[in-house]
Amino acid sequence: MKYNDTAKQKTTERAAAEWLLRMDRLGEEAVYKEEEFQIWLNESEEHARVLSSFLELWRDMDKVEPYLEREVSSPGVVRPFLGRYRLAMSSAIAASLILMLTFVMSGKRPGHYLADEVTSVGEIREMLLEDGSRIILDTDSAVDIDYSERTRRIELIRGRASFYVAPDPSRPFEVHSGKVTATALGTVYSVRRLPDGERVSVSESKVKISPAVTIGAGTAFISRENMKPQFVSLDLVRENAWERGKIIFENTPLRQVIDEINRYNQGRIFLPEDSIGDMKVNGVFDVSEVGRIVDLLAVSFDLETYRLTDRFIFLYKKN
Hints:
- The chain is α+β, with helices and mostly antiparallel strands.
- It contains nine helices and 19 strands.
- The protein has helices at about 5-25, 25-30, 35-45, 45-50, 65-70, 85-105, 235-240, 255-265, 290-300, and strands spanning about 115-120, 125-130, 135, 140-145, 150-160, 160-165, 175, 180-185, 190-195, 195-200, 205-210, 215, 220-225, 230-235, 245-255, 270, 280-285, 305-310, 310-315.
């Protein structure tokens, strides 16, 4: 999101940051006393746009950090958009919003400016390399490509990518991700950066994991900090569904489903109530239809939805 460097825009950005923080700082009773938030929100379409854009500021927190650090000093008290929902839920939703801001402050995308290829949130893109190899880059991912006379080196900076490797015995095809180097001994494999490690999944032939591990088709190698490496058997249809814009869940807890959907979501979906996170989900979903996925989950589990603009969606139990 691009912002004009004007006094009016800065005022709007500052106010949007303060409204989210006030829900936590003022407490439930104060939040319900007045209607200043609704007045502010309805003053301008720009107010709603800036409020919703905070999720995009995950990648550029320089604009919002000063506002989060300053003392909230405006005298007004708010009665927010949550007035028609039960009082007990307001605390959970407020906590989710504060959690969102914490995530924003820690969610910068390091290295994107150094990458040769980058995808935005929700984008899946295929690219053809000079040797005939192909890369399919998942949502919010970045790779650096370094081809020389002796080697073909790819660095996965962020996210996930699948590699369809063209044979060339004179130039090994290597993918570097964190502490893992995966060298192609065949044709098709994917590498994913995890919050605390890496995952290499092989679809065809074999891949050598440095320094001395080789895995074959239908196997994933998972490396995590301070843990022994794991080897997992794969359902390749499910594993590779993302390349076609699909995600497949089989008895997957709802909280994990939401985490995966959020990777493709320009906004964010929240589960304010921990108890519904254990519900099991089965199905095939199109990652380009996040709104429809939310509606299907709500109907399937008899849940309420609340939308703050088109960016913030909350799922919780009905009264």
